[in-house]
Amino acid sequence: MKKANLPGAEGAVPSKTALEQERKILLDLGNDLTRVRDKNDLIALFSKRLKSLYSITHAIIALIDHKDETYGAFLYDIENSPIKSHPGYKLLFGQRFTLNEPFIKSVLAADGPISFILEEVMDQPQSPAFLRVNYEGGIREILMTKLLNAEKPIGFINIYSDKAGRFTNEFRSIMNGIAPQLSSAVTNIIKNEELRNKEKEKSFLLEFSSDIATVRTKEELARSVRTAINKLNQKSGYVIRRINEDKTTMSPYVFDLGLKEHDQNIVNALQKASYPINDGLQNRVLESPIPLLFNVEREIQRGLTAPYLLNWQAMGFKNFLGIRLRNGETNLGLLFLDIEEINVPLLQGICSQISIALANIMANEQISKKQEEQAFLLNFSNDITQVRTKNDLQAAIVTVLDKTLHTKLAMIRVIDEDGFHMSPFMFDKTLFEKAKVDFEKMSANVITIEEKYTAQVLASEEGVVFNIEEELKSGNAYAQLWKTTGLRNSYGLPLRVGNKNIGTIWMQADRLSPLILRGICAQISIAIANILANEKLLAYKKQLEVENDYLKEQIKTIYNFSEIIGNADTMQKVYRLMSLVAESNTTVLVLGETGTGKELIARAIHNASPRRDKLMVKVNCAALPANLIESELFGHERGAFTGAIDRRLGKFELANQSTLFLDEIGELPLEAQSKLLRVIQERELERLGGKQTIKVDVRLIAATNRNLEEEVKAGRFRADLYYRLNVFPITLPPLRERADDIEPLIHFFVARYSKNTGRRIKKVTPKVIQQLRSYVFPGNVRELEHLIERSVLLATDGVLDEVYIPRETNAEKHEQAYALNRSLGQVERDYIIDVLKRCAGKISGSGGAAEILDIPGNTLHSKMKKLGITKADYFS
Ligand SMILES: Nc1ncnc2c1ncn2[C@@H]1O[C@H](COP(=O)(O)OP(=O)(O)OP(=O)(O)O)[C@@H](O)[C@H]1O
Questions:
Q1: Hey, whose CA ends up nearest to atom 10 of ligand 1?
Q2: N or C: which end of the chain has fewer CB within 10 A?
Q3: CATH architecture assigned to 742-874
Q4: How confident is the model at residue 94 (pLDDT cuts 50, 70, 90)?
Q5: What CATH fold (topology level) applies to the domain 386-536?
Q6: DSSP string of 485-527?
């Protein structure tokens, strides 16, 4: 490379005047330079002072950046530049040139000003472009002088001339002399500029901070940040992202793409998305105490696939800056700014202001949200306190959840009384319509507290949030169903009263706050507990009414007997058998015609048994419709059959630890017989429609007026059941076979009905007694009782002297028929035997046969002799 002349190399030794002039110029320049504060002043000074004296075109000051070993123009003398119309001129603005090339190295190596003929250097390999541009603009020579600060080069002053060889020694010497002052002027300018910038930054930050201090809403924040960015002469876009409640994702909070036009689809996608924090970019920003500058292409090349990065690439963003926003030690989010240059302190200042504003807004939002939630819960609680029935609750829940919280109720299940199974309590059958499943049917599936997800919910403190997408991935079978609602989460929450789990509630929503969840659960729990208690209360009330009716009915009859009347041998046998069996648990079968006192005997056995403290329970198998017998005996669950509105205990359960009296057992339908047999064998039962087995301890007494053996033969009664029942049979004699018991029974019933009706009957005439004794009583004791009851009502003057015996009974017809076929003697003989029988063989005296027959005792004796009547006849 051919260098131009060094200082002093050209021309002769300067003349005295030249030296003086030079000194003067130097002095003036030096004086002026000390006053220079602004870079414009400096270049103006140069133009003014030097141009008039020396033939130069223009000057430029370039500054070195040692960090990246480059230099570039700092001050231009644009006005005087002869190359300003050159097409390449504008390109030189802001351009940096390397220090690592021979041309500039030679400048740096030179001790003082050094000049170059452009033509010689401009096309050398690596020569800076400005040389050629200047040449093409008519410049021929350049004089470059290093500017030093504490011996270290800080830049150059380049003087240009449109003619070669114009830089005289004098001029070089001036430049050499002026260089130190120029250096310090430049340093001052830089410092000044820095100071001014700092001042500007300060006032900017101050302004920004007072602006942002008034920010209360997201919109105000957006406006304030935009203004600030604009003031920094950045029309760039930015996004403030906030960390979501899940702490694992971030979503755009304030979003402003600047002035550029963008594809609206991309913009929408960017605005709505939420991004995982750990995407290799956001996490880096959050972890970094200083702002980070990223290059979109480079990050993508590094393998990052964050969707927003790809969108930014598509939108033409090149570089962006990421800076975290935090409140104290807590990260709130970050700011991404589309920017080329980075002024770290300024940005940090801006961001700390944004952070404060963001924290304030968030706190504000939280407060107003809390207030809203509290107001909501208050309303909800008001609504729910009115709730008494399931329908009320459903209305309250659906209105509030759906309309106010955009939340759907999927299902409420309550834990059954067994503490294990769970029954659907309430659900929205339309919720999973899109899944094309019959939710109503599905909800009927048996669920227990051990079911996987239910157990998880019941064990949780405040419920479980199932993110539907994640559940899908983990193979949760319900997630497919949940997904069809289009909502993001499924919430399973325990319903509790105190510490007791009473059920679960399942809801679907995008987001629900913990406060709301807790509130809703507590309220619904109480409401459900109330409803259940209410239902139970009603059921109990009903049950009590039924039991009460039943007991009343029982009490009516239970104290009906104070004793069993009758001393006939056949009755004595009955008493013996009763006393033998009463103490045990043995099943007793009481046989006998209708009205012979079978129930009376059954009660007497019960009352003589260890179970006497509990009421005997009676079922009349003939009085029940066939389809209700089973439910009557074994009870039923709610909904077991049409009309089973409530749960009902069966007579077996009612008779637990007592005696169950199965009256008219012969009338029991076959189907019920087999069920009865099972219960007798196993001593346990299941309610109709129930799943639980219930153990019972019941003593059985059955009664029938049928001949069960014949019923078995005819296939109407199960043989096995017969054998089970016929463990200890007691047969009651018909009344007609124990005529002697008739009179005591008459007195017994007269006393009872006198008392009941308030009519005091003092006497029953012998005629009446005789009439009754001679009657056959097909209805046995019950018939006698009814006859007396009626007669008591009809009696006058306290004397029962008439009974209304039915005339046309079959027995009478039979007797009449027999009588018609007999001789008079035979009739007389039969009649006397009969009367004797009824008078227990007593012939004369009061109540004797002679009195009844209204003949003297002697006459009767002789008649008996004549007719051959012996004791054997009337005592048989
Ligand atoms: N020995 C008795 N002493 C007093 N009262 C009796 C006697 N036998 C029966 N009765 C009365 O006669 C009525 C009918 O008796 P009960 O109902 O026990 O007969 P039953 O054999 O069970 O009749 P059914 O076969 O029609 O059910 C009852 O009012 C009962 O109190």
A1: 597
A2: C
A3: Orthogonal Bundle (1.10)
A4: confident
A5: Beta-Lactamase (3.30.450)
A6: T--SEEEEEEEEETTEEEEEEEEEES---HHHHHHHHHHHHHH
